[in-house]
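Re-run with default settings, no changes from the original entry. Doing this only to confirm the output is reproducible before filing.
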Amino acid sequence: MDITGVVAIISVFGIIPLIVFLVHRHKERQALIEKGMDINLLVGEKKCSTLESLKYGVLLIGLAIGILIGNILDAYTSLNEEVSYFSMIFLFGGLALLVFYGLAKKQEAEK
């Protein structure tokens, strides 16, 4: 599998939005400093880090399961390699986020 194309796509769709975000945030902060306002206005309340950790943990588990199932589909069916991997990665990644949503709602209801 040629990884050059995957790295190029991730770079374009990952690095460019990150640069745009950082430039925009810098301009916002400079404008606040010029107006003499407190920069702490931009910093909101900290979210519960356990929910963030849970979200990323469940997502990564879903992606790993997607890769494994994609490999099984590639080996034992007539599906193309790309189709089997990408479809399963997106399917199980989405399912993992739905599982996280259910767990977060359940935890919120308990409070």
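The helical segments are 4-35, 49-76, 81-110. DSSP finds three helices and no strands in the chain.
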